[in-house]
Amino acid sequence: MEELESESSTIITISDVLEYLFCPRFIYFMYCLDIPQHEENRFKVIKGRDVHKKRQMTNREYVRKKLNCISKESEVYVVSKAHHIKGIVDEVLFLEDNTAAPLEYKFAEYKDKVFSTYKYQLVLQALLIKENYNIEVQKGYICYTRSNSMIKELAFKLSDFKKANDIIKDIIQIVDKGKYPQATKSKNKCIDCCYRNICA
Q: Which family is annotated (predicted)?
């Protein structure tokens, strides 16, 4: 697996990558200008945290045999110095074919499409699992709690891991060098953005 070539000691979170995918300027405002986004006030963030807390309290021993899972670990905190990233994986599933897979719970409905933020969250978790467990990770799962806990599988390609590393590299450039990035091309995202009043 290609490691991120960088002398930087910066380690970012998976959440940072999700913010970057929403708009690269989030990273600039948070890290370079030190302006918090107060995500704790956002409804979906609060509900998502509630879902995670409930998951921690219930079905702790439940193993998803339909996914050929033989064991799992829950709420796993993992760090990779090689990839400059850290995060918590809701569940690390260990599968019958001697591979592993991340499973992420989302307080969301499935609407015939997996968002790229969800996809890259799983890809980054896969990088972390590979390195920390020294095991192959070829796919990941999302559980949509507002669609009767529907599970969607995503198979990873080599190009997914390359793009994930490219994204991390871009974020570290912004954080370490104060590079002012282009804003998102999707202007609809600006409507609800907490930084809309200061973003030029």
A: Belongs to the CRISPR-associated exonuclease Cas4 family.
CA–CA distance, 65 with 39 (Å, rounded to integer): 35
- Token pair for 111: 């609407």
Tell me the pTM: 0.84
Find where tokens 């499935």 sit.
Answer: 110
3-state secondary structure at position 12: strand
d(CA 125, CA 69): 17
196 vs 112: CA distance, rounded Å: 30
Instruction: Report how far residue 18's alpha carbon sits from residue 56's, in angstroms, rounded to the nearest whole number.
Output: 23
Q: What is the DSSP letter of 4?
A: P
The first and second tokens of residue 12, run together, are 């970012």
* E-assigned strand segments in 16-135: 69-80, 85-95, 100-106
The residues near 59 (Cβ < 8 Å, ≥ 6 apart) are none
How far apart (Å, rounded) are the C-alpha atoms in residues 27 and 4? Answer: 19
The pair phi, psi for residue 173, each rounded to 5°, is -60, -40
The structure tokens 């998102």 sit at 184
Phi, psi angles (nearest 5°) of residue 131: -70, -45
> pLDDT tens-digit profile of 127-140?
999 999 999 999 99
